[in-house]
Amino acid sequence: MLIQTGAIPVWVDSNLEDYTVDIEDLNRKISKEIKAIVAIDLFGHVCNYDKILKIASSFNIPVIQDAAQSFGSKFNNKITGSYSDITCFSFRPAKNLYCMGDGGGVVSKNETFINQIKMSCDHGRTDKYVHEFIGWNMRLDAIQANIMNKLIVHIDEFNKMRRSIAQIYDENLKTDTFVKTKNYCENSYYQYTIRVKNRDKIICKLRDNGINTGVQWPISLHQQPAIKSKYNLPNAEKIQSEILSIPCYPYLQEDELNYVIENINKII
Ligand SMILES: Cc1ncc(COP(=O)(O)O)c(C=O)c1O
C-alpha cells in the first residue's frame, strides 16, 4: 500500500535480538529524503521507540507504528497506540484482538492525519457525494466491529494468559533461542518464536506428533516478488531461515503445553 501511494521504501534490517528495527541500520539509512519511519513490531515485541522517535524528531518526520502484532503490548508502560504519531492495527483472525473476517484500525492524536485516513478509507470522500481524491474502500464492517467490542473486554486477560505460557516456555525449553523481551517492553506474545537450524525436519517431526508450528515469514518483504528490491538485509535473511513459531494462544491447556515442551526438547 505504501508503494501504491508512490512512496519508495528504504528497507532497514531487523536486529537479531527481538527481530524489530535494527537501530544502527536505521541510523545509517535515515536521510533528509525520508518522509516517515514505518516501524514494525514483531510477535508482540515492540521496537525501541525511545530511539526511533528521537531519530524521527531530529528529521521532523512522523513515526508510523505497525502494531498489527503488538495489540496490548506496552513500551515503557505506555500502551501500544499511545506514543507514536500513527499506529496501525490488524484485526485478522489469529491476532491478539481479532474479528471473524478482515478488519483493521488506525489511531493518532493528530486530527489532520485521522481525517486524511478516514477519507482514504472511504474512497477519498469528504462529503456524502463529494470525493476529493482517489482512496480505497477500507471501511471496518460493523459486524466485525461488534465482534471485537465483545472480545476487547477480555484482551488483558488473554494477553496475561499468553505471557504466562511464554514464561513457561522460557523456563522449560532446552533452547535459549527464544526472544528475550527487553526491559522497556511488556510483550503481548502474538507469537512465541524460537530459532532452529534444521527447521524443516523439526516441523515434520512435530507435525507427526500432532503439533502444528508456523514460519512467519520464510520470505522477508524486501525479497517478495512484488517488491523486487536489490536490498541485502543479512539479519532479516538469517531470521527468515531459522524462525519457528510454536503454539501460544490463551486457552492452551497445561497438559498440551507440557506435551509441546516435551516434544520440542526431545527433537531439538
Ligand atoms: C506486521 C504486520 N503488518 C501488517 C499486516 C497486515 O494486516 P492486514 O492483513 O490486516 O492488512 C500484518 C498481518 O498479518 C502483520 O502481521
Detail the topology: elements first, then pairings:
Elements: H1 23-29, E1 37-40, H2 49-58, E2 63-66, E3 74-75, E4 78-79, E5 86-90, E6 104-107, H3 111-120, E7 125-127, E8 130-131, H4 142-151, H5 155-172, E9 185-186, E10 192-195, H6 199-208, H7 234-242, E11 243-246, H8 254-267
Parallel strand pairs: 1-2, 2-5
Antiparallel strand pairs: 3-4, 3-9, 5-6, 7-8, 10-11
The protein binds pyridoxal-5'-phosphate (PLP).
Short recap of the structure:
The longest helix is centred in the middle third of the chain and has 18 residues, at 155-172. The mean pLDDT is 97. It is built from eight helices and eleven strands.
Keywords:
single chain, 268 residues, alpha+beta, Aspartate Aminotransferase, domain 2, 4-stranded mixed beta sheet, 11 strands, 33% helix, binds pyridoxal-5'-phosphate
How would you sum up this structure, described in words?
- The protein contains eight helices and eleven strands.
- It has 268 residues and is α+β, with helices and mostly antiparallel strands.
- It has two domains: 3-153, Aspartate Aminotransferase, domain 2; 155-267, Alpha-Beta Complex (Aspartate Aminotransferase, domain 1).
- Strand 3 (74-75) and strand 4 form a beta hairpin.
- The radius of gyration is 20 Å and the shape is globular.
- The chain starts with 22 loop residues before the first helix and ends with a helix.
- The structure holds pyridoxal-5'-phosphate.
